[in-house]
Write a structure and sequence with these properties.
Immunoglobulin-like, mainly beta, 2 domains, seven-stranded mixed beta sheet, four-stranded mixed beta sheet, 225 residues, 2 helices
Length: 225
């Protein structure tokens, strides 16, 4: 399965809507003659090769709704993106939620980039991983019945500026959500047909999760009228 990502490329705030697509849909897209290549090595903060880590190549300076190039590192931390479908400027970011990396939580570095063109179709990009995200787990239930609520809407704001959106995400309530590590954040939780979580009303629920650490919250929502 590939992921279709709608990107608002202002970089801050980042709003991500992810839709899972089958191979049949991807196969229907016309072949593009561009055959760009980005290759390099990824190391972690201890200087060790990042093995079997998911990566995404991210085009800079354009508005885009498309399947972004995705690959994984090998046992030596090396990677190759091949057949990149657009010329232009790219950065590469770690895109592996199980490992603790995502665009919304650990971000990308738009100042480090490479440019692909017909004259220079291949480029080297070496990446040092940022700190891992914090892992947030929400046990979401109906306040009146105690029954699980299947879907959740999570909005995370900066505590330094409560009106500054970090990200907003709709997903299954069983999914672990990655949040920026070691930052003071305000959390809002709701679901369709329910009022906002009482502890997150107003500015939001204050949270701070250290890099690689996990926080579990028991959240009960009151059904709307």
């Amino acid at each position: 399965m590939r992921r279709f990502v709608l990107l608002m490329i202002g970089l801050s705030p980042i709003i991500i809507v992810t839709i899972v697509l089958g191979q049949a849909v991807a196969a229907q897209q016309p072949e593009d003659p561009t055959k760009g290549v980005i290759y390099g090595t990824v190391i972690d903060q201890n200087g060790q090769p990042a093995k079997e880590l998911g990566l995404t190549a991210y085009p800079l300076g354009v508005g885009l709704g498309a399947i972004l190039p995705y690959t994984k590192t090998d046992q030596n931390g090396e990677f190759h993106f091949v057949r990149i479908p657009w010329w232009g400027r790219y950065t590469v970011f770690a895109d592996d939620e199980e490992a603790g990396y995502s665009l919304s939580a650990t971000g990308l570095n738009p100042t480090k980039s490479v440019t692909l063109s017909p004259e220079q179709p291949e480029a080297e990009f070496n990446l040092v991983l940022p700190p891992k995200a914090g892992f947030l787990k929400i046990h979401l239930t109906n306040q009146k019945t105690g029954e699980p609520i299947k879907a959740v809407q999570v909005t995370v704001m900066s505590a330094d500026n409560p009106k500054s959106l970090v990200f907003s995400q709709s997903c299954s309530s069983t999914r672990t959500i990655l949040v920026p590590p070691d930052k003071n954040l305000f959390l809002h939780v709701t679901s369709w047909g329910f009022r906002e979580w009482s502890e997150g009303a107003g500015d939001g629920k204050s949270i701070r999760i250290h890099s690689g650490s996990r926080l579990t919250l028991e959240v009960e929502l009151d059904p709307a009228d």
